[in-house]
């Protein structure tokens, strides 16, 4: 993932699960700075392919959240994020953490 500037608005956070998650009832991106509390962002599941850093994410297999406020990513330094998708009370796949940096 490309580095992000602190407080930048309009930046998509994307995570690929690698399987169809279009039927999920809830998708949450959990972002955690190296220091401080984790944040939860409601994610959408786009129905179009997208290429990020040379890797194609297939429609309905990834989720994204676009930053809306300066406070979304307000810690400068290392972050990690993962996706939780909920299909039912017993079917809750999640990704491993993906690391990224927030620049000053």
Give the key terms.
mainly beta; two-stranded antiparallel sheet; Immunoglobulin-like; 0% helix; 5-stranded mixed sheet; 104 residues
In short:
With 104 residues, the protein is mostly beta strands.
Describe this structure in words.
With 104 residues, the chain is mainly β. It has a single domain (4-103), classed as Immunoglobulin-like (Sandwich), CATH 2.60.40. Helices cover 0% and strands 44% of the residues. It is built from no helices and 9 strands. The strands form 3 sheets. Strands 1-9-8-3-4 form a 5-stranded mixed sheet, with no helix packed on it. A two-stranded antiparallel ribbon has the order 2-7. Strands 5-6 form a two-stranded antiparallel sheet. Strand 5 (50-52) and strand 6 (55-57) form a beta hairpin. It is globular, with a radius of gyration of 13 Å.
List the helices and strands and how they pair.
Layout: E1 4-5, E2 12-16, E3 26-33, E4 39-42, E5 50-52, E6 55-57, E7 62-66, E8 77-86, E9 98-103
Parallel strand pairs: 1-9
Antiparallel strand pairs: 2-7, 3-4, 3-8, 5-6, 8-9
Whole-number average pLDDT? 96
Q: Number of domains in the coordinates? A: 1
How far the N terminus sits from the C terminus, by CA atoms, comes to: 17 Å
Tell me the fraction of residues in β-strands, as a range: 35-45%
User: How large, in whole angstroms, is the Cα Rg?
Assistant: 13 Å
């Amino acid at each position: 993932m490309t580095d992000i500037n602190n407080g930048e608005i309009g930046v998509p956070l994307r995570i690929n699960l690698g399987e169809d998650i279009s039927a999920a009832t809830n998708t949450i991106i959990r972002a955690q700075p190296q220091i401080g509390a984790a944040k939860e962002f409601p994610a959408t599941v786009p129905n179009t392919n997208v290429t990020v850093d040379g890797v194609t994410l297939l429609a309905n297999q990834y989720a994204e959240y676009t930053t809306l406020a300066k406070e979304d990513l307000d810690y400068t330094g290392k972050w990690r994020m993962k996706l939780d998708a909920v299909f039912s009370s017993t079917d809750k796949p999640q990704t491993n953490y993906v690391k990224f940096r927030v620049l000053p």
